[in-house]
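Lecture notes, part 5. Sequence design as translation. It can be helpful to think of inverse folding as translation between two languages: the language of shapes and the language of residues. The source text, in structure tokens, appears below.
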């Protein structure tokens, strides 16, 4: 098994255990497009793969089956069936016969069906054929691991994980592959020979997220500003035109998905479902489906507000690349080289970087808990919003950590190029926010203000009065 995979320790360990199991295994692996699912399987299991096919976007049933058959001919060295299968049922019969005739391996033979949602073309009967293939054949082969992979996570969940027909409860294993953490991103850069300070790695992460396919564009010897210019704004840059391909490759009729993404990008502090509905004018049924698909594919996150009703849930655009694209790339196409150096000095940069840093802190909640020394304490995290009443003004707190040991952290994220200095006005705002929270929520728990910063804040008079704990970006780069 290959070991040249950065990070993914939990996933590699799980795959190793599955290979040693004494039963047939049917695994679903899913996650955001470009997150590295195919790379993980091909690299870590390359010695075990005995059959691999990838779906073709917008391919017809006949094209998909022809591609399947081409792989079958290569794997069997044309020693078996030589007629193109007439259906998916026949194609899987060919594959079952091929697997049955192979010598028994020491661990497991792996059948890897990549981009499975694309194989399932309309009226192709792909799912029913897959169902029969598993139930009739592979489920009896304790030396076979069948892997279904796809970026359209909603398809995987609907047709496999939550299937109601013949594939009900048949998935034995699942892996949801997440983007790299900052720790994994830094390790990935090291493997590329790129040595950048944490602040510049954080800048790049704010633009690309932890998406390995994007991060591999990083070249050594360049600053974050130069790299963002090259990758996002130059005519040859990978991320200049990625946005539209991203959504159209995942979703049929992606217009609704893009409409929601763009509505959320305009309000990065988040929107309720009712606000999204009013803004996009998408019908109720379509809105439910689209929000679910975007959430399952990790483009948006749903934050259940603590101490509020469920209907007040906040939807946020948490795909960092999409947020950056809509804020900066789309309005500045064709603006010329070295545009990012100018844009990063404007006020829009300050607002965007604040929201992006806040999203990154949410993604690294485990590292924040560890830095607070509460890894072993049960917590809930979310947001809180108070509309205001006759007594108290309204306020919103974007990140709250509620601990089972009766302590609440009200978090304040500040992304700055230098050491943050808390001003008199900012301190007064934090004090007011805490006071409103205590009175409006009627909590009996201790309430602390926690500052999340890039570099350590200056411990001036106002800091000492208002800040109970502080976490810098260094903590976000830790493994756990």
């Amino acid at each position: 098994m290959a070991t040249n995979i950065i990070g993914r320790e939990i996933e590699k360990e799980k795959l190793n255990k599955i290979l040693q199991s004494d039963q047939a295994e049917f695994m679903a692996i899913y996650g955001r497009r470009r997150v590295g699912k195919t790379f993980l399987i091909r690299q870590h299991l390359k010695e075990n793969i005995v059959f691999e096919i990838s779906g073709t976007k917008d391919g017809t049933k006949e094209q998909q089956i022809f591609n399947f058959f081409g792989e079958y001919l290569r794997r069997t060295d044309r020693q078996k069936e030589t007629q193109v299968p007439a259906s998916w049922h026949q194609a899987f019969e060919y594959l079952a016969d091929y697997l049955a005739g192979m010598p028994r391996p020491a661990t497991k033979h792996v059948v890897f069906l990549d981009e499975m949602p694309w194989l399932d073309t309309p009226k192709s009967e792909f799912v029913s054929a897959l169902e029969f293939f598993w139930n009739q054949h592979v489920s009896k082969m304790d030396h076979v691991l069948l892997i279904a992979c796809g970026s359209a996570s909603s398809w995987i969940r609907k047709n496999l994980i939550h299937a109601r027909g013949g594939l009900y409860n048949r998935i034995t294993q699942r892996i949801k592959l997440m983007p790299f953490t900052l720790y994994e991103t830094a390790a990935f850069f090291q493997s590329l020979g790129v040595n950048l300070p944490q602040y510049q790695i954080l800048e790049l992460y704010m633009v690309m997220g932890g998406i390995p396919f994007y991060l591999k564009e990083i070249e050594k010897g360049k600053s974050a500003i130069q790299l963002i210019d090259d990758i996002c704004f130059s005519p040859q840059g990978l991320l200049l035109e990625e946005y539209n391909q991203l959504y159209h490759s995942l979703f049929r009729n992606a217009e609704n998905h893009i409409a929601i993404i763009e509505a959320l990008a305009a309000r990065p502090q988040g929107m309720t479902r009712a606000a999204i509905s009013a803004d996009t004018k998408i019908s109720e049924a379509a809105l439910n489906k689209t929000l679910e698909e975007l959430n399952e594919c990790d483009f948006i996150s749903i934050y259940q507000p603590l101490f509020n009703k469920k209907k007040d849930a906040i939807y946020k655009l948490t795909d960092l690349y999409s947020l950056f694209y809509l804020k900066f790339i789309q309005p500045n196409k064709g603006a010329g080289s070295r545009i990012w150096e100018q844009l990063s000095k404007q006020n829009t940069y300050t607002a965007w970087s604040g929201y992006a840093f806040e999203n990154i802190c949410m993604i690294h909640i485990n590292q924040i808990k560890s830095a607070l020394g509460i890894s072993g304490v049960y917590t809930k995290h979310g947001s809180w919003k108070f509309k205001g009443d006759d007594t108290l003004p309204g306020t919103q707190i974007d990140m709250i950590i509620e601990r089972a040991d009766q302590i609440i952290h009200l978090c304040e994220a500040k992304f700055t190029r230098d050491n943050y200095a808390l001003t008199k006005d900012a301190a007064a705002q934090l004090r007011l926010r805490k006071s409103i929270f205590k009175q409006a929520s009627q909590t009996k728990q201790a309430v602390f203000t926690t500052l999340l910063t890039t570099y350590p804040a200056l411990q001036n008079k106002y800091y000492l009065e208002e800040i109970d704990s502080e976490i810098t970006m260094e903590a976000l780069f830790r493994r756990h």
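The translated text above is only one of many valid answers, since several sequences can fold into similar shapes. The chain is about 45% helix and 15% strand.
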